[in-house]
Amino acid sequence: MSLVFHALRAGLFIGIILLLIGVTNVGQTPLFMAFLAALVMARFLELSGPGKALLATRLADEDKSRITTWIIGATFITNMVVPILHYRYSKPLPEVGWWNWLGLLIMIAGSALRLWSIQVAGESFKAQIAVSAKHRLATSGPYAWVRHPAYLGTIIFYLGVTAIFWSSWGLAALLIVVVPTFVVRLFKEERILEAHFGEEWRRYAAQTGSMLFPGL
Fold this sequence. Notes:
The longest helix has 30 residues, at 168-197.
């Protein structure tokens, strides 16, 4: 698929977010304008850079157990749509404070970590749980700290969204849906990586120590 097509998808995505927040709310709240600008930039960088190949390819030997993939896809609802609607239909609307702006910085940091992780992994980064003969094991950059930094970046991103809209529903979804789903998926992914890379993976896993959160 062309970059133009992905740009149209990104524009549709931003348009949906704009309508969910409310055009009037965005116009009256600098935080929300900054939030949309950050989403536009993150999406553009992913589509025009490391994520372009990721979105355009699928592996023939893709793992067929897709329940975690479906759940991760549904987190757009649980961790983007729900926090926004929770904020929008609160009576009265919560005032914007420093904590909401801090959430924006956290969201940007999560996006940056995810983009960096995709960039370092290159062609080895796939949306599916699968590996092929041409894949290499990424061990540098963020992969020197945790074995799955892109997942960590997504969690940080959603934490930022939760803080921007100060949504207890978003926090609950993060703790009940996102983190457990990622952990289940990563245990399965690590078994596949160990089977493919063998001793190279075991040495890397022992050296890194942390699967998802540094120090844990």
